[in-house]
């Protein structure tokens, strides 16, 4: 009985939190500017070719791990 009550309490708490929608971020100009800057940086960093990204990542991993895995 206690588990069922706890489950319904948690369910009610999550439902009320999701329905509250305070929309505080809609009115804060600072956060809107920061969000736009973050979007611009994300667009600039995006590379549409996943193969080149993978190759670049693998090359970085190899260059970092060379010399560190040698047995003394």
Characterise the protein shown here.
This protein is flat. The termini are far apart. It has a domain at 21-56. The model has no long low-confidence stretch (mean pLDDT 83). By secondary structure, it is mainly alpha-helical. The chain is built from 3 helices and no strands.
At a glance:
72% of the residues lie in helices and 0% in strands. It has helices at 2-20, 29-45, 50-65. It is an enzyme of class 4 (lyase).
Number of strands: 0
How does the major sheet shape up?
A: none
Average pLDDT over all residues: 83
What is the molecular shape?
flat
First-last Cα distance: 62 Å
Derived from helix and strand composition plus strand pairing, the structural class reads mainly alpha
Task: Please give a handful of descriptors for the protein shown.
flat; 72 residues; mainly alpha
Question: How are the SSEs ordered, and which strands pair?
Answer:
Elements lengths: L1 H19 L8 H17 L4 H16 L7
Keywords: Lyase
EC number: 4.2.2.2
Protein name: Pectate lyase protein
């Amino acid at each position: 009985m206690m588990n069922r009550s706890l489950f319904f309490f948690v369910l009610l708490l999550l439902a009320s939190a999701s329905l509250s929608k305070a929309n505080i971020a809609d009115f804060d100009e600072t956060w809107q500017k920061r969000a736009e800057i973050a979007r611009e940086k994300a667009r600039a960093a995006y590379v549409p070719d996943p193969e080149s990204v993978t190759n670049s990542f693998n090359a970085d991993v190899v260059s970092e791990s060379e010399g560190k895995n040698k047995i003394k």
